[in-house]
Design a protein that fits this description.
Elements (H helix, E strand, L loop, with lengths): L1 H15 L5 E12 L2 E11 L2 H8 L4 E11 L10 E12 L4 E6 L5 E4 L2 H8 L1 E9 L9 E9 L9 H6 L10 E5 L2
Antiparallel strand pairs: 1-2, 2-7, 3-4, 3-8, 4-5, 5-6, 8-9
Amino acid sequence: MKRTILLLLMLLIVFTEANGASFSVKEVQINKVDNGYRLNARIDYALSDKAHQALSNGVPLTLKVQLVVDKVWRGFWEPSPFAQTLWFQIRYHALTELYRVVDMQSGDEQNFVTQEAALYALGEINNLPLVRLVQLIPGEAYQLRLRADLDIDSLPLPLQPLAYLGGGWKLTTGWSQWPLQP
């Protein structure tokens, strides 16, 4: 019995190891502009040692940002007026010693000398169109939910089982929410 408890504690420590890494939403501004809402947000991406090592060895990391606008009180059958997933990728090119950030929606690419600068740029969301006012019912209370994750499914296939089972790969902000009133 004692061995089982000790083993479970050791597994818990291994699975929760993140080496000080975390993703967090630092700032969100929702602005009403003309016929809809626009989002400005700042997400802080701090990679774990394992993710940092993989990136430094040429493994591209894909980050996804999920955005959902819902009624505060809605039935499960009611569709969300707005849902979008943004995809970004960061890569390190050893030959040029540059970090490349790719906005996978537009295909825009930027190069950075340091990983910190690349991660900072990844965390900037500026003037992103959200939901149009005609999609919202006046008088109803809505909320914006946001979550950012490291996409483990986008890792190279041999690395995926290690990422799912090992610590330091499940990097997420968790869901955060902000009120939205039409």
